[in-house]
Amino acid sequence: MKNGALNFLIGGPAGSGIEKSGQILALSFVRGGYYVFSNMEHSSQIRGGNNFLRLRIDENPHEVHVDEIDVMVALDKQTIDEHFSEVVDGGAIIYDGEVVKLPSDFKPGKVKMIDVPLKKIADEEFGNPLVVNMIALGILFGLTEFDMSVTKSVLDKIWGKKGAEIIAMNIKALENGKTIADKNWTKDFGIKMPKKKSLNNMYLCGNDALCIGAIKAGCKFVGEYPMTPSSSVLHFMAGWADKYGIVVKHVEDEIAAINSVIGAGFAGVRAIAATSGGGFALMSEGIGLASMNEVPIVVIDVMRPGPATGLPTRNGQGDLRFMIHAAQDDPVKIVLLASTPEECFEMGFKAFNLAEKYQLPVIIGYDKYLGEGYYTVPPFNKKDLKVERGELLEEKDLAKIEDYKRYLFTEDGVSPRAIPGQKGGIHRATSDEHNEYGEICEDALNRRLMVEKRMKKLEIALEELPGPEIIGEKNAEITFVTWTTSVGACEEACEILATKDVKANVLKIRTAWPFHKKETLEILKGLKRPVLVEQNYLGQLGGLIAEQTGFMIEEKVLKYDGRPFTAKYIIDNLK
Description:
Pyruvate-ferredoxin Oxidoreductase, domain 3; 4 domains
């Protein structure tokens, strides 16, 4: 425990306002000058089950949670049963003893048990049981002596449409809780969180960051069927659709989603579809269609555990191979891997340039932890962003072409592209193999040339795709080889190992396909002790590396229980 750093958990049954309470707390600390990372773990039940939200609040940025808890708000007994062992000595548990019945032999040890009749206060003083969480948050603010002056602006942002009366009631509930804490426990609690200078940072999830990049890139069509944990892409884009002139279609299923996006891309509109593994399975035939027709589209796969429905609301990294091989035969596509909100923004922008420049599907993959986790980040760097539409023809260009061939054989495999309605740009588009005009053609030589034409685009594209990156110490004793949010956990593991005089670094893979064989192998051959870290059973990234480079990573730290990595877990599982 230390001043200026707080690890918080609030838990209870689904439907008890945990996420909204966490949002209020997080935004208060962000506006109070702190960095906040939050991770929500919830069951797939609409009601019941046990949900919990972790907040890691610090003077420095973090990308992963820790298992230690300084303050817990327990809205049910299950939260205490499951997480009591994580509460540090000197930490506190805020609960209502009339609601959360603890056994008579319960031994808290050095943990402060703050028993407050939250429900009774809410009913008798406010006539509203919904303010229970606000009273509990007020106690937390009191324990840490946090200045709540910023919280009113947070409530205005979240509940402004509900009216001044609702906001005033919640502020009063917060003040009520703070008063209770000040009278009883504040002086004795070991963590103080003084208000700091505001850093003007953003607080957003990876899905939001991806959407901001897509909007900046000029995305004008969204075709999506909501699927956890990608659904907030649909919600975000719909929320900003009117302002930025975006057509957002909540379609009947993922097949309709991918086909509508292909139609938009074919018509010259920048289009996106977001889904998770199960929906991506339904999209795979459409991805092949876009590849064959050389239609630029962007698809987002926010991963969760499978197969089938799997764990709908949990975390996993099991779609790597699937994203690369979706669609039969040898579809031509680019697969990018994001590990931070900044990369979600950058890839969300760049994916559209790549899709149109090389006329193919671009897939961006990351996991639920990034998609739904909330991070404190500075404003995105937009200085060098430039929209590039590739070989997209205007009518004046077509007027100079006597015999337009949509799939013209070219040196780099990219053909000049006309869109429907342009004078002189008439061509055919079919899911069958075709000749340069788009006419169905089964000629053997033509087939070979067309396959090579499409594949040539990947060879050229590889030069501008983000390559493997070493993060941290040079000449490290241990190198963690990983992707997406496991990168953040590995970086923190390196920091912890450094305190034990062990040098460690991270090899981050950012492009899954086409693969940077030469660059990756060159790095791997110079490593002393590579350790594969990823969240799937087979070690899919390790398999891809072995397939592409011949280099086998023997030591692995794999996790496939649906829960994300912590740095401690990685270190504890090193040989």
